[in-house]
Write a structure and sequence with these properties.
Layout: E1 29-34, E2 43-45, H1 48-55, H2 71-80, E3 86-91, E4 100-103, E5 110-114, E6 124-130, E7 147-153, E8 164-171, H3 181-185, E9 192-197, E10 204-210, H4 221-232, E11 239-241, H5 250-262, E12 266-270, E13 290-294, E14 297-300, E15 308-311, H6 314-327, H7 360-366, E16 372-376, E17 384-387, H8 401-417, H9 428-447, H10 456-459, E18 460-463, H11 471-475, E19 482-485
Parallel strand pairs: 1-3, 1-11, 11-12, 12-13, 13-16
Antiparallel strand pairs: 2-3, 4-5, 5-9, 6-7, 6-10, 7-8, 14-15, 16-17, 18-19
Amino acid sequence: MPDYSYPGVYVEELSTGPRPIEGVSTSTAGFVGETERGPTLTRLVTSWTEFDRWFGGFLDLPTLTRDNRFLPYAVRGFFENGGQRLFVAPVIGQTASVASLELQGARGPTTVVATSAGAWGNNVWVQVKQASTALLADPASGEAQWFRLQLFYYRDGVPGVPDAVEDFDDLSPVPTDANFAPSVINGVSSLIAITDCQGTPDLVGPPGVQLSGGTYVPAAREDFIAGLDGLGTIREISLVSIPDEVVIPELADDLVSHCETLRDRFAVLAERTDGEDLSQIQQPRDSSYAAIYYPRLRVPAPHLRDGSVLVPPQGHVAGIYARVDRNSGVHVAPANQVVEGLSASDPSTGLEPLSHLLGKVEQEVLAPRRINVLRDFRSNGRGIRVWGARTMSADPEWKYVPVRRLFIFLEQSIGQGLQWVVFEPNTEQTWLRVRGSITNFLRTVWRNGALMGDRDDEAYFVRCDRTTMTQDDIDNGRLICLIGVAPVKPAEFVIFRIRQKTLLGP
């Protein structure tokens, strides 16, 4: 109760009605994989251009050929198919070293390091110039104090056209200045960080001085797991993938375990072998928190001799998940959707947009194994489409992707929306407020078409009263709420039964 200690007019705010529950995001994805360069920490990107700026481009260039090379293609496919928010967790071998450089100066060196380990840092060049501003001199010594750093990254080495250029002007070596060089550059530059700045560095003209000492070591399973753990701390992620799990087979199991442990996200996998013998294609394990797709996709790759390359479909499919969530809702199956960003057929080489063209016969073999396929419907003008929406679970209750993802959405939304209940009095008044909040939320979900039933009492129920808790529960601080929902399920088999109708005479 407020403390009314003296006469006067008091204005108070009162809460009316149940507290609303806000639905969590379902279309934010997280990918783990090797990148050409860039920051070592997980970073949000919202476009392919932004990814290219921070992490570089493709990894199968002649100078960058790697086994773990599929992440950039997955990122591009994600955005081409409707994805908008993607957290990237970059990985590299633990013993890789970071390129560095010491810029000499009258008062001591300025240490420059690449933003991440790898041989890529050896291709960063630094030029030091006078600052553009007229306020250059130290009043005590008359020496020029502010300076300008220009950075050039040459993927294929000097000479050539730089693949990335950064320019930082009016930098100060004084830690108390707002334009102190490390404060301005670190976290902003995609190429370097300054770890020590003892004074103004000496001028260095074109072409500059080169960082050195960086070495590349391929990422191993434990490195990918560390990246996956980094994604685990980001609550808004609801879709996860490791495009290179087709290269390191154990990663598929690690990814599914990650989703089953956290219970707030769904894994998109690719069939590992991409073989033609369908009898050998099996899913890695049973789980309702993942779905697997086959075959691989052919996408444009102008930097390669063939102009295209086969890649696993996780990124493209995750983009379709995000597109359907945004346009229709998480309860709608991410299937019967056109896959964008594929190469066209090339009659001269016989290359097709899919590594294997599948029909009804092939899908009859794969569907019972819960393998979702990508099929070619171009012959009737419908393009390449995702043609399956099953999880990897053998449990009929969790057969469909939208059912599992709807429950993830409901559980996370209710869990986050009712944090205020903790330590509230465990009484009828609190139970009433809890029921009201959940009921209002589920009514909105039902009206959006995610639950079955012509009436809301057919779509869901919420109980939080003496029938759901014993006195022992109450004495031990347990508030128990029982919720039931009737999720909609996709029409996987559409059957029309037609018969002749005979007109009978009078």
